[in-house]
Amino acid sequence: MDVISVIRTKRDRGELSDEQIDWVVDAYTRGEVADEQMSALAMAILLNGMNRTEIARWTAAMIASGERMDFSSLSRPTTDKHSTGGVGDKITLPLAPLVAACGAAVPQLSGRGLGHTGGTLDKLEAIPGWRALLSNEEMLSVLDGVGAVICAAGDGLAPADKKLYALRDVTGTVEAIPLIASSIMSKKIAEGTGALVLDVKAGSGAFMKTLEDARELASTMVGLGTDHGVKTVALLTDMSTPLGLTAGNALEVRESVEVLAGGGPADVVELTLALAREMLDAAGLKDADPAKALADGSAMDVWRRMIAAQGGDPDAPLPTAREQHVVTATASGVLTRLDAYDIGVAAWRLGAGRARKEDPVQAGAGVELHAKPGDTVTEGQPLLTLHTDTPDRFAYALDAVTDSYDIASPGTPFTATPVVRE
Ligand code: URA
Q1: Residue 265 Cα, ligand 1 centroid: separation in angstroms?
Q2: Are 320 and 394 in contact (CB under 8 A)?
Q3: Which of 18, 33, 119, 266 could form a disulfide with 28 if both were Cys (CB 3.0 to 4.6 A apart)?
Q4: How many CA atoms lie within 13 A of 201 on its CB side?
Q5: What would the mean pLDDT of 180-203 be, rounded to a whole number?
Q6: Lowest mean pLDDT among 2-16, 60-74, 160-174
Q7: Ligand 1: centre distance to CA 204 (Å)
Q8: What is the pLDDT of residue 117?
Q9: Nearest to 102 by CA among 268, 283, 230, 257
Q10: Pocket (CB within 6 angstroms of ligand 1)
């Protein structure tokens, strides 16, 4: 087999055979196919697509590139959630302990932020002492003892995806449905969860900008999960405006703890409960009551034990940024738009995200929102607070937020986009 013929097949809109797919994924993982050759193939896939048979085979080849985990020794049913990524999306933080408090085991392998979307591991690392890197044995022991674990995927899990995702990120080939679907599902299937709920986001702050594309991504992933014996369901959710009132690492941990304490922004609570119900349902725990577990403090108990089991101090004060800059409303009226992508870019430029994989992030950096679409605002009132340790970043972040919002004249009717769209 030679790589040029594989690239040419897809370049010329052909269908890749099983043998071509198995060979190219394996040879790339072993370093026999070079990055520039895989970049050309990824671009051909982005431009010309793949059919469901090709996507299924590509996913299977990525799973086969590494090890598979096994949770069959656990007494509780396993259920997991994966979001396709967004701005202010801290849902995993309250969700994993909440679902564990209702009787399931939640093996949440999570990632870091890259670009304008935040990463769960970067957020949790704002908690003093907390460790993302656990051995497989440690992970199983936290999962068994506490009921929930949030950690980085080990090097052995879908190594083809690790290499390919890093390559796609720097070659403009992230936004391809076959590549996103196989990337996410290869990790989740190799992880060995029994049930999986996908939070597929649509809107400016998501990879899928339209509901139609999000729907296609969701149905592709649900098909892959189901074919591998994982009970998989998907919610299509809104990402046109940030979730909650914060985007940034420690800022989002603080908001998540508010949700676990029974408060927090309404959209974060609504989505956390909607996903919890789907996860519990998929795990066969239909009678569990996640709203009760939030209200009676049992989800908070699991959170505290989960953080402590991974070396974190749940009582330690969270880091705050050294400098703040307030952006005020330029008019009075109804806030009709607050753009998720712009806020994500601002948080990233303030230091909450990284430009390159190896860059450190600032725990305290990010954006706090003082109003959400539908709110009435008055000229001069604070709209956003920008947080960073490095004030020379303010000008660059301000560029991103200048056109991030619209204010219509007072009394203009406003219809909010539902958090859960389908
Ligand atoms: N998340 C992933 O794990 N992979 C993608 O390709 C996109 C989002």
Answers
A1: 27
A2: no
A3: 33
A4: 26
A5: 96
A6: 160-174
A7: 17
A8: 81
A9: 283
A10: 84-85, 165, 174, 179-180, 183-184
**Bridge-based pairing state of the strands 195-202 and 246-248:** unpaired
Active-site residue set: 82, 161, 168, 183, 187
Q: Give CA–CA dist 26/28, Å, rounded.
A: 5
The CB-based long-range contact list for 15-24 (8 Å cut-off, 24+ gap) reads 15/51, 15/53, 15/54, 16/50, 16/54, 16/57, 16/58, 18/57, 21/54, 21/57, 21/58, 21/61, 22/57, 22/61, 22/64
Measured in Å, residue 321 CA sits from the centre of ligand 1 at 29
CA of 179 to the centre of ligand 1 (A): 8
Type of residue at 200: V
Name the closest-CA residue to atom 5, ligand 1: 180
- Choose which residue among 183, 188, 196, 357 to substitute to test ligand 1 binding: the one with the highest number of ligand atoms within 8 A of its C-beta: 183
pLDDT value, residue 112: 84
Residues 6+ apart with CB under 8 A from 181: 55, 59, 217, 220, 221, 224
pLDDT value at 253 more than 80: yes
For a mutational test of ligand 1's pocket, the pick from 84, 109, 114, 357, i.e. the residue with the most ligand atoms closer than 8 A to its C-beta, is 84
Distance of CA 328 from the midpoint of ligand 1 (Å): 35
Atom of ligand 1 minimally distant from the CA of 187: 3
pLDDT mean over 225-240: 97
| 101-116 as b/e: b if 16+ CB within 10 A | bbbbbbbbbbbbbbeb
Atom 2 in ligand 1: which residue has the minimum CA distance? Answer: 184
How far apart are alpha carbons 385 and 258 in whole angstroms?
19
Closest-CA residue, ligand 1 atom 7, reads 180
- Domains of the chain and CATH, by start: 3-49 (1.20.970.10), 79-309 (3.40.1030.10), 323-408 (3.90.1170.30)
Q: What is the DSSP letter of 392?
A: G
* Cβ–Cβ under 8 Å, residues 369 and 413: no
Q: Which residues contact 310 (CB under 8 A, 6 or more apart)?
A: 130, 131, 132, 134, 142, 149, 150, 151
* Inter-CA distances, 195 with 198, 282, 294, Å: 10, 6, 22
Q: What are phi and psi of 173, to 5 degrees?
A: -125, 25
